């Protein structure tokens, strides 16, 4: 998957609609910085946002992942494979980020344990430093629990549902 090609394609689609990055970001409930990163090929949108983008631009997810309009001879099986590859790629990136975050938290916890064993946690400036270290470690653990329990996915899904309700409250199903 060529992130730059996808980014250029997303930029082209946005400009065809006459939207600024901020306008698109508002529709998706993300920052304009996120849209900029997608269009520069630095990052890719989450799978849930790909679905919304495909609806906004009236194209298939397959076309977004290809970075071009769909060929006549493309099959449904190719689309499923591309979406699966994309999902796997995003999960690998997320797992790698979480691993490094946990490594940093573990190192920070060791630092806190050293300060505690030397009984420096009750003297300044070490008291403030040890409090920050403990807070960082607890924050990373909480983030890990949210990722592992899929609460973040539920929060993102609820956010998208609320946004679509706010934008189109009288939509008939």
Overall residue-averaged pLDDT value: 82
Structural class: mainly alpha
Show unreliable segments: none
Distance between the termini: 35 Å
Give the overall shape, derived from the CA principal axes. Answer: elongated
Helical percentage: over 70%
- Would you count the extended β strands for me? 0
User: How big a fraction of the residues is strand?
Assistant: under 5%
Q: Please give the count of helices.
A: 8
Order of helices and strands: HHHHHHHH
The value of Rg in angstroms is 21 Å
Largest sheet: none
What are the main properties of this structure?
8 helices; single chain; mainly alpha; 173 residues
Please, could you describe this protein's structure?
It is a single chain. With 173 residues, this protein is mainly α. The chain has helices at 3-17, 21-28, 32-40, 47-57, 61-66, 76-117, 126-148, 151-167. Helix 1 crosses helix 3 (32-40), helix 2 (21-28) packs across helix 3 (32-40) and helix 6 runs antiparallel to helix 7. The protein is elongated, with a radius of gyration of 21 Å. The chain starts with a helix and ends in a 6-residue tail after the last helix. The model has no long low-confidence stretch (mean pLDDT 82).
């Amino acid at each position: 998957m060529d992130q730059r090609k996808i980014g250029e394609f997303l930029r082209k689609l946005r400009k065809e609609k006459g939207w600024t990055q901020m306008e698109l970001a508002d529709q998706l409930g993300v920052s304009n910085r996120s849209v900029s990163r997608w269009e520069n090929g630095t990052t890719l949108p989450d799978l849930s946002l790909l679905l919304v983008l495909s609806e906004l631009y009236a194209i298939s997810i397959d076309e977004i992942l290809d970075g071009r309009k769909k060929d006549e001879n493309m099959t449904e099986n190719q689309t499923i494979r591309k979406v699966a590859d994309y999902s796997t790629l995003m999960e690998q990136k997320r797992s790698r980020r979480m691993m490094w975050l946990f490594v940093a938290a573990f190192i920070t916890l060791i630092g806190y344990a050293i300060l505690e064993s030397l009984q420096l946690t009750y003297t300044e400036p070490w008291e403030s430093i040890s409090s920050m270290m403990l807070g960082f470690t607890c924050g990373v653990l909480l983030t890990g629990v949210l990722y592992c329990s899929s609460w973040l996915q539920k929060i993102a899904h609820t956010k998208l549902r609320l946004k679509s309700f706010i934008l189109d409250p009288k939509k008939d199903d």
